[in-house]
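Self-study notes.
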Amino acid sequence: MTARSPDSLLTALGAGALAGASVGFFEWIAALISNGATVGVPQISALAWEIPALGSLGVAVGAGLNVLARASGGLGPWFARIMFAAALTLVPAITLGWMGAPVGAVGVAGAYRLWRRPDPRGLTILILWALLFIALHPLFGGATLRLVYTIPQQMTIIIITMAAGGALAWLAVGGARPASLALVFGAVTLTLALTWVSSIFLVRLWGFSTMEYVQMVVMAVMVALMRHPALRLIETLARRGIRGVQWVILVVPALIIALGPFAGNGYALTRGFLVDHAPHGALLMRVAADAVDRDGDGYSPLFGFGDCDDGDPALNPGAVDVPGDGIDQNCFAGGLTSVAHPYFNLSPWPTPPASGGKPRRVAIMVIIDTLRADAVDYAAGGASRTPVLSEIASRGIRYQNARAQSNNTGESTPYFFQLGYRALPVYDSRLGVVPLLNRAGVCTAGLLQASVKEWWGTLGLEEVLFDFNHVERPESGIRSFPLAEMGRRAGALLDQCPPEQDAFLMVHYESLHDTFAHLASAAPLEGGRRMDSAAQLLALARPARLAETMRAHYLRTVGAIDQSLRPLWERAREIDKDAEVMFIVTSDHGEEFFEHGGFFHMGSLHEEVLRIPLLVYGGGARPGIADENVGAYHVPATLLGFFGFSGPMIEPLDLRGGRARNAGIFAHYSWKYLMDRRSFMVMEGSLKLVYQQAENIKRLYDLATDPQERRDLSGDPRYAARLHGLEEQLDRIIYYINYGDMAMKRKTRHPPAAIP
C-alpha cells in the first residue's frame, strides 16, 4: 500500500481530473467519427478545450465524492438504516408521485444486503444514488413518459433507471477497492457508450434549459464511472514507485486550459465545432463564460461569446437595439439605424369585408405537423407515394421555396393564425385570423388530431389561435385521434356550419411529430421487427442507419396521412361546385434525419427543418410551380383576402403569378424556455444567414451552389458586402421579434421605439 491511500483528497482530485480528461477525449473522438469530420485547426483547438474542461469537472466530482465519503464516516448503523429507509421511500415518492410506492418497494427488496450491513461507504452510495435519481426527475416528472409509454413500460423504465443508478453509485464510490479487470472494462465500455450516445443524441435535442440539467448529470455519471479505472491506474503507478502522478494530472490540464484554446484561429472555429458536435464541451464553455459575466446580463466576452461591454448590462447580444440612438445595444451589425421595412411598417389593421352579394366561400387549411418539403412525392397518378397531395398540387399552385418561421410548433404555428408577424410572439386577438373571421360572420371550425390544448393554454394563446365556433380535439388522456378517423371527423365538423354560411376549417395532423419516439409504438419495421426503446438506443451506434430507418417510418406515415386526406379533399371538390373554395396544405416545420449531425427538428435552422410544403388550390390560383421565396406568415393575409378583407397588409400571395409581395424570409427559435437566447435566420435570394446569438456564431450559405449547407461563406471576402447587408436586415428583424417579446421588454432599460 502506498503512503497515500487511494481515498486521500489528492488522489481523489487526481483521479477525478484523469477521469474527466478521458471523457473529454472520448467525446472528441466520437464527434470526429459520428460526423465524419477531419482533423484541422478547429478540431485540435476543440480538443485543447475538451480535455481540461472535462478534467476540471472531474476534479469537482472527485472532491465531492471524497468529502461525501468522509462526512459519512462518523455515522452509526442505525442512522444509516434510517437514511436508507427514508431514501428508498421518499425519493421515489417525491420524484414519481403516486408511482413512488411500488418502485420504492422494489428498491427495498433489491438493496436488502445494504440494509443488513450499513456502513459509511454504503451510506455514501445510497446518498449518491438518491441524488442521481432526483437529478433525473425532469425525465420522469414531465409528459414524455406518459405520452409515449404505457404504465407498465413506465414502471419498467423507472425501475431499470433506479437499478442502474445504484450500480453507477457503487462503481463511483464503492468500486475503488476491487482489483477486477471486469470492473475496469465495464466502466470504460459504459462510458464510451454514454459518450457516443450523448454526442449524437444531445447535440440538438430540443435545446431547452432542462436538457442542460440532464447533461450535467450525464457528465457527472461518466466521470464517476471513469474514476474507478483512474484510481486503479494511480494505485498501480504508486505501487511501482511512480509518486506524485496526481500533481502531474492536476497541473498539466491547468496549463492546457490556460493556453490551449488560444491555438489556431481563436474561439469562433472552436465554438462552431463544439456546438455542432460536442454537447458537453460546448455546455462547459458556456458555463465557464457565464461564470465570469461581470454585469450579470447572461452574456460574457470570454471565449468570444459576444458581450461588447461586460460592464453595462444594457449592452449584450440579447438586448433590444434601440434604432437611431447611435448605440449598438445588441452588439450586432454595428447598431440599428432604422426600422424601415416594406412589411413591418404597414398598418396591420384590416378592413372587414362588405356583406352580401357574393357566393359562399369555404376555406380549408390543413397543417401537417413536421412535414418537410421533400417528403411530398409530386409524381403523377399512381406512381406517387402521396397521390392526394400530388393531385392538389397539380390542380393548384405549389410554392417550392416556402419556409416556416421557426423549427418548432410552439413558435411557428402562431404565424398561420395572426395577421402580420411584427407583434409575434405577443398575440393580439384583434389581429387573429379566427377572431377576425368570427366577427365577420364566418363559421369557423378546428380539428386537432392531438390534444395540444395544454401547450397553447400555458402560453395564453387559446383564444387567439383556436377560438373556433366548433372545435374537436381528443379528451384528456388520449394521445391522438387515429389517422383513419381524421377525414370523417373533418367532414362532420364542417357539417356543423350552416350550408349557406361562409366557413373556415382548420385541420391539424400530429402523427409525424417525434418520429424517434413514435418508433416505440410503430407498426413492425423491416423483417417484421419492432424497434423498442432499447433498440433505439443501440441503433445510435450506427446513426446513418438509424436515420434511414426513421426516414422509412416517417415516409410511411406521410403516406398514411395522405390517404386520410382523401375524404376531405373530395368533399372540398364537391363544395367547389356550388361555392368558392380555397384548399391550403402546409406544415409548421420539417424534420432532421442526421443531415447535420442530429435528430428531431429542434436546435438548428437548416433547410431540412425550415423548408415546408405550401400548396394552394382555388381562390383564383393558377396551376403551376412558384419559385419565389415565401413564408408561413403570408398565409393569414391570403386567407383573409379570400374572405374579402382589405388593408395595407392584406397583400396575399399572388395566386395567379406565383409571386409573394414583400417576401422577406426569416426564421428564429428560442434556445431556452425563457426565450432569452435565440438563433435567427434571414434570406435574400439564395443567400441565407444564420446567427446563433447564444454562441455568437454567424454562418452564411449560398443555397444555389450549396443546397446541403456544407460551406460557410461568412469568412469569404467575396461575400463581405452582401453579408453586411444581410446582417442589417437581420438586425431589423431581431428588433421586431424582440419588440413583441414581453420578456425582452421587461429586461431592456430602454423603451422600444414607436412603430407606425
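Second protein, same conventions, sequence then structure:
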Amino acid sequence: MVFAMNLLRQSVKPGSLRLLCAVVLFGFGFWASNLQVEAAQQPLTDAANTKAKVAGSEELITDDGTPEVALVLDNAIGVNRLTPSAYPATLQTIRIYFATLQGLPSPAGAQIKLIAFAGASGTTAPPANPTLLFNQTVTIPTLPSGGGFVDFPVQNGPTINSGDFYVGFQSPTPAGGVGILADSNGTPRNRGFASVDNGQSYVGPLTLTGGGPVNVLIRAVVMNDAQPTARLSVSSAFNFANVAVGANTEQTLAVSNAGSAPLSITAINSSNAQFAPVSLALPLTVPVGGQASLRIRFAPTSTGAHNGTLTIASNDPSQPSTTVSISGIGGAAPISPTAVVGSNAPQTGAVIAPPVSSGLLYQVQYVVYVPAGATQLKVDLTGDQDLDLFVRHDQRVAISGSNLLADFASNKDGVGLAESVTITPTTSPVLQTGFYYVAVANFGPGASNFNLTISVTGGTAAGVLSTVSAASYTGAEFAVDTIAAGFGANLATSTQVATTQPLPGTLAGTSIAVRDSALAQRLAPLFFVAGSQANYLIPSGTANGPALVTVTSGDGKISVGSLQIAAVAPGLFSANSSGQGLASAVLLRVKADNSQSFEPIARLDSTTNQFVPVPIDFGSATDQLFLVMYGTGIRGRSNLSAITALMGGASVDVLYAGPQNDFVGLDQINLPIPRSLAGRGNVDIVLTVDGKQSNTVRINIR
C-alpha cells in the first residue's frame, strides 16, 4: 500500500495548508515555508549526511535537514529505519524535527509517545507488531523560531548487535499541530514508514502521490565502537548576488569538522572558472570541533546567471568527495523594483539562487497597463531553473506570512519548464482595466536567467513613459517636489507652457497622476506639455517606494511609467540642460566693503550655439567668491551637515542647500570658492546629500 501525500507542489511553495485525501482515506497536510523576497544573501542550511561516524557516538541521518511535507493524523506512528556504522550500538537520543504548520496550533506542549524497535539489516519494512525496545511518553518543549530539531534523551537505551534501529513517535489524538515532517528534495533513502493501527502493521517506504519518495526528519544518536574519524560539515549551496562584469567579489565558505579526528582537506576544484578558491594552501587541516574559512571569489565574465559546483576532497570516510553548488549573477542589480513594459516587449532578467528548499521572489516586478476594451492578457515565462509566475491586478505581488498574494499563478514543478498565465473576461477573477503586476519566483536550485513576454489583446495599448530628473537627466530615484521630465509619444495634443502659479494640474487637456506605494493617487503640477515630453513636479505627500505614473492626453491616449520615490534624489542643473558640462550657476563676489555683485560663469556662443565657460577671476585678494548653484531633489535633506561638496576634488563647506523659493521645485546650493583653486581651469563639482551623490557639473577658474 502506498502512503500517498498528494501535493500541489513538492518544492516549498507559498500557500495555505491543504488537507488532502490519500488512498487509505487519511487526511494530510503539507507545510510550506515562506517564499522570500530577493534582497541580501540568505543563510543556507547544511546538507545532511546519511551517517556520520564519530568514535563512541554517531548521529544516524537520512534527511537533508529541511522539511517540505508533513503528515498530520490522529494517533499516527512515524518511524525511520537507521543503520549504525558499528556494533554494538546503544540508542542514546531520539532527535525529531517539529514546526508550527500553517493554520494549525504550535505542537509545543503536546504529548507524544517515543518508540524504538529493531529489525534485520536492509529490510524494506518494519516487522508486524514489533516488540518495542523503548516506549516513553514525553512533552514537546518550546520550539526554536521557525521550527527545528528537538532532542529526547533515552535513559539506559536499548543495544543492538546487528541490523537496524527503527525510531520515531506516535502523535496524540487529536493530533492538533503535531505532524510527522519529511523532506522531498533530498537524496531518496526509502527508510520512512508509518502506521495507523497502533503499530500492528506499517506502510511504506513513504512516497508522494506519483511515487516521489520522502525522508522523515527523525534521527538517532547511538553509541558504537567506531574508530576516530573526521567529519566534514559544509553548506550544500553557496551563492553570490550581483557582481559587475569585469569586477570580482569574495565571500567566506565555512567548513567545519564535526568528527573525532583531524579533518584534512586535500583539494577544492571548481567546475566553473568564474568561481575560484583564493589563497588556498593545501592540505588544510581542521581540528576536531574546529572550523576553516575558505575564501571564494566570483569574477563574472558575462552578464546573467552563472552556476557551478565546488568539489571538496577530504579524509572524511563517509564523504571523501563533497560537492557544494555555487551560483551568482553577472551585472549590476536592478535599480528600480518596478518596470513598466509595453505589450509584446520581451524582457530578460536574472534572479539569484534561493535558499535551500525554498523560493525567492525576484526583486523587480513588471507592470503592464490593460486598456478598456482589452479581451486578453497573456504572460509567458521561460528560464533555466524551476521558476514560477504570479500576476496580480492593481497591487504588487506580495508575501503575507506564509501566503503569497496574487490573483493568478503558474507553478509547474521542474527545472526549465515554461510557465504561462492567461486572463480573459471569463477567468476568475475577470480581466479588468488598469495595472497588472507580474512577479517571477525562483525555486532553483541555482541562479536563473529568464525571459518574460506580456501581451495585451484588444483596446488601445498604452504608451510607455520614461521619466528622468530635469536636472541630472537620470531616473534612478525621485524626491517629492522634484522637477521631472517625462518622455514618450502622444503625451499631449499640443504644446503648452504653464503661465500661472500654483502650477495647473491640466495643460492642453493633458493630466499626470502619480500613484504611490500606499496606493494614494495625486495629480502632478505641470510645467510644460508637448507631444513627446511633459515636465511635471513630483507631488508633495507622495510616499517613498515604487510609484506609477499615468499620463492621460487630451484625446484620451494613455502612457504609463514607474518611479522610485526617496527622501532625497540630488540633481544639479547644467547650463545646456543635459545634466553635464558647465553648471547652471552664477558667481557672487563680495568685496571688502561688503558690496555684492553677480557674474555669469557661462555664455552661449552664437557661432557654435553651445555654452562656453566664462573663467572665474579671483580679483582682489580681499574679494570673497561664492558659487550659487541650482538643482532639484535636495530640499528633503536631513540636515545641512549631511551634505558634502567636492570642488576640484577638494572638500568645501556647504553654506546653504534648500528651496530657491522663486521657482517651484528649484533648489539652491551656495558654496565658497577657495583661492587654492586659482589657475586650475576646468573644475568638477559633485554634491553628496544624505549619502546620495549628484551628477557632476563643471566651472572654469582662471
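Instructor comment on the second fold: The CA atoms of residues 209 and 316 lie 36 Å apart.
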